Amino acid sequence: MSSGPMQKQVIEWQTPGADDIVFRWPNENFALGSQLIVHEYEAAAFMRDGKLMDVFGPGRHVLTTQNLRVLTSIYNLFGGFRDAAGQRDTPFKATLFFVQQKMFPSRWGLRLNVRADPQFDTIFIPMMANGGYQFRVADPPVFLQQLVGGLSSFTSDSVNSYIRMFLVERLTQNFAKYFFTEVYGKLEGVSTQAKVNTAEAFTQRGLELLDLKIESVDTDDDSKAQLNRVLGFTGKSSDAFLKAEQIRIMETFAQNPQGGGTMGGQMISVLPLGAMAGTMQSVLTPSASGPQVVVQCAKCGAHASTDSAFCPKCGTPLKPTAGPNAPTSAPDPPPRGAASSSAPSASAAPGRYAACPYCGKDLALPKTPKFCPYCKEPLS
């Protein structure tokens, strides 16, 4: 704090931009007797050490100890607001914020995975939504306290991004409760409910959400085609649809095994609409005899045929998809050292088994796995 009197000044936010919500006065030294001009639809607030002190509404204010009651009480505790002669014209230090309280229009947009339809509640598709919203600062002290704690920069872009960020977060939580067909078919009703569910978050931050609209809801082209198949499917159940999709993709590969349906020529997901719960994921892999359905171990990521009871790499139990050849349980292995009718022949390559020597199951793999996928006995 300076030991001499400071020149009185006129403090005013002269040229706020159309999108400017908050302005931080560049100088933190103020002299008693200075004039503070607050325009209509504005508020000005002094803060110190992150705490709100004194707030001023529209009008012309001369800064005195009478209208700076909170700052005055704090400075008087430390003998402040006095120069060497004991006069109260010593400059004081604080941070001054101006806040515009007019209505601000803005835009929002988001993308998330939602359930496709009430009759297919395990099938997810991406949903892209956007729209507009209008808000204003209803409680400047609360807004500033929330803002100071959440931001390190007070530019217009950072403040607007801060507001848009928590709006999108709330909307994402709200839309996750809906099905895609619900949002798409009832935009006005969903918009109204989203506004109700989001308004409280604005109030907690000193803001008022005046309006919120969903203007567009869409998904990508691949999901549109598959959504049409979902809605036109007569089975009316997620499991039946997923099985039908698996058969459809297998038939596509059978007709064109060398086509562009593989990802890098290796595999393609059978369930592009969403993931099934469980410990494995079904995929298709091309082979000389056509596409084969395999499962992927959730622990190590290795692939195994759908009738495998255990992962051939790490031995983790699998839960294969249902199929005509899928066993209900793994067969009991014979005692170690017992001969098997499918024991490897002398012509078999060293280190490779054509069949498991314990359970006799045909392996038919290019490389012997560490564990038998049917009885879990170690093979290497």
Question: What would you note in describing this structure?
Answer:
With 380 residues, this protein is of the alpha+beta class. 25% of the residues lie in helices and 26% in strands. Among the domains are: 10-100, no CATH class; 104-222, 2-Layer Sandwich (Tetrahydropterin Synthase, Chain A); 330-380, no CATH class. It has helices at 69-77, 140-150, 156-175, 180-185, 187-204, 221-232, 238-255; strands at residues 10-12, 22-24, 29-30, 35-38, 42-48, 51-56, 59-62, 92-93, 95-100, 104-117, 120-137, 207-218, 268-269, 280-285, 292-297, 303-305. Strand 15 and strand 16 (303-305) form a beta hairpin. Helix 3 packs across helix 5. The longest helix is centred in the middle third of the chain and has 20 residues, at 156-175. It is elongated, with a radius of gyration of 34 Å.
Structural features:
four-stranded antiparallel beta sheet, 380 residues, single chain, Tetrahydropterin Synthase, Chain A, alpha+beta, elongated, 7 helices
The count of helical stretches stands at 7
CATH C-level label of the domain at 104-222: Alpha Beta
Q: How many DSSP E strands? A: 16
CATH superfamily assignment of the domain at 104-222? Band 7 domain
For the CA atoms, what is the radius of gyration? 34 Å
CATH fold assignment of the domain at 104-222: Tetrahydropterin Synthase, Chain A
| Low-pLDDT segments, ≥5 res | 260-293, 320-331, 333-350
Which range does the strand content fall in? 25-35%
CATH architectural type of the domain at 104-222: 2-Layer Sandwich
Main beta sheet strand tally, sense and closure: 4 strands, antiparallel
- In spatial order, strands of the major sheet run 2-9-5-6
N- and C-termini, Cα separation: 80 Å
Class inferred from helices and paired strands: alpha+beta
Q: Order of helices and strands, N to C? A: EEEEEEEHEEEEHHHHEHHEEEE
Give the overall form: elongated
Q: How much helix is in the residues?
A: 10-25%
What would the average pLDDT be, to the nearest integer?
Answer: 74
